[in-house]
Amino acid sequence: LTPLLPHLDHRNRGMRTRLGCLSHKSDSYNDFTAILPDKPNRALKRLSTEEATRWADSFDVLLSHKYGLAAFRAFLKTEFSEENLEFWLACEDFKKTRSAAKLASKAQRIFEEFIDVQAPREVNIDFQTRELTRRNMQEPSLSCFDQAQGKVHSLMEKDSYPRFLRSKIYTDLLSQTQRRLS
């Protein structure tokens, strides 16, 4: 037993180091500007306080705005839950698929990446929804992910969205747009 103790201590120290790195994940306005679709300064000059304030009106308003989506994605990264948004966006893109040939392969890719048990970016959905989606995969259609997408949307809206509105990313962004006015 004694020879194992140094090995265990070494593993624990390594784990503490890794966890320490994770805890330094930032939740700041600068993290948001780093992933803006345009050059950050030019993009923020175009973003009005009114637009950024409207993101608090509803979750769907936030998702429909290019910079709102970027800010929410940056926030989810700080919470290590960006797979929810990525799945939702993949479903939105999937619904635009017009080629029957591409439909099945796109559906399979989304299923393997987000829905399947132990998927690399598995979303948190209940067993029934997962199984319904699995059955839908036998004959993929544009609506085969609707229930799973709805559950993930609801989870983000009820859980992540209120925290986003209280986050440093969002409050710093609002402050930044207001400072430009003064």
UniProtKB/TrEMBL annotation:
Record flagged with keyword Lyase: no
RGS domain: residues covered: 58-174
Signal peptide from the UniProt entry: none
GO BP terms, alphabetized: negative regulation of signal transduction
Keywords: Cell membrane, Cell projection, Membrane, Nucleus, Signal transduction inhibitor
Coiled coil: none
Cellular localisation: Cell membrane; Cell projection, Dendrite; Nucleus; Perikaryon
Gene3D superfamilies in the record: 1.10.196.10, Regulator of G-protein Signalling 4, domain 2 (1.10.167.10)
Record-annotated membrane-spanning stretches: none
Entries under PROSITE patterns matching the protein: RGS (PS50132)
Gene Ontology CC annotations of this record: dendrite; nucleus; perikaryon; plasma membrane
A Pfam family: RGS
Top-rank lineage group of the source organism: Eukaryota
InterPro entries: RGS, RGS_RGS8, RGS_sf, RGS_subdom1/3, RGS_subdomain_2
Topology of this chain in the membrane: Peripheral membrane protein
PANTHER family: REGULATOR OF G PROTEIN SIGNALING, REGULATOR OF G-PROTEIN SIGNALING 8
Protein name: Regulator of G-protein signaling 8
